[in-house]
Amino acid sequence: MSELSVDHLLGIKYLTKEDIGTIFQTADQFKEVINRPIKKVPSLRDITVANLFFENSTRTRLSFELAEKRLSADVINFSASSSSVSKGETLVDTVNNILSMKVDMVVMRHPNPGAAVFLSQNVESIIINAGDGAHEHPTQALLDAYSIREKYGDLKGKKIAIVGDILHSRVALSNIFCLKLLEAEVMVCGPTTLIPKHIDSLGVKVSHSLREALEWCDIANMLRVQHERQDIKYFPSIREYVQQFGVDMKLLNELSKPVTIMHPGPINRGVEITSEVADSDQAIILNQVENGVAIRMAVLYLLASKRKMSF
Questions:
Q1: Which DSSP string corresponds to 203-270?
Q2: Which terminus of the chain has a smaller tally of CB atoms within 10 A, N or C?
């Protein structure tokens, strides 16, 4: 089995195409494991993982925790709201206190961009970025690309439209890096105010017409509007946003070809997609959730085995 070129998973931009291939091949094996009657393997039996979530999360935190337990790791869960961080303790002090309890790996979500990189430079542990502000969310991009590969066989030349709040989305940025590395074509689509100014410098197309984007793409990855990161109004009303950028079955049926619908969650049903679309055969949203566990198992296993080799 190939070895990863990195010691941490801080962002897709630090990975090579070969790294992604290695993660996907390892995830294939773990996908088979999690569909067995006995879903556990002893791969990380002597490893302790701390999940540090300084921001709210349901899917990502549960997915990581399940992945860790499927690999037989010991798991510590840490929530910032009930910790000494709320009393003013620094991030490095918090993590070093946890590491002094002999923790081998840290999975961290943090509201500040670059927090995972900063941590990797200041503490002795394997760091996995579970989302840093509006910067990157590498495991989400990996599971999204893996889900496309599962459905289509290969990503080369596939056309993926990322629709919605691109400006505030770490999922969008990680997806762009990952999809471009795998030689897919990428278009971002949304209101002018929610598209970053120089995003075309990343080699992506830009559209402000949902219909145009859907006619162009094979796969549409629908993002929610991130109200919690918005300090001003970026569009007049939710109603107007839905009219211009919401996907319903009527629109999908009018297209010249079927389009696969993805969503990283949480879904705002009736905003970016209707319930009918979310629950339709064209959506692979639940496949993404299942693949998230296999991808995170692969990442944890590959980074831990690399660390073990260097002990």
A1: T-EEES-HHHHHHH-SEEEEPPP-GGG-SS-SSS-HHHHHHHH-B-HHHHHHSSS--EEE--S---BT
A2: C
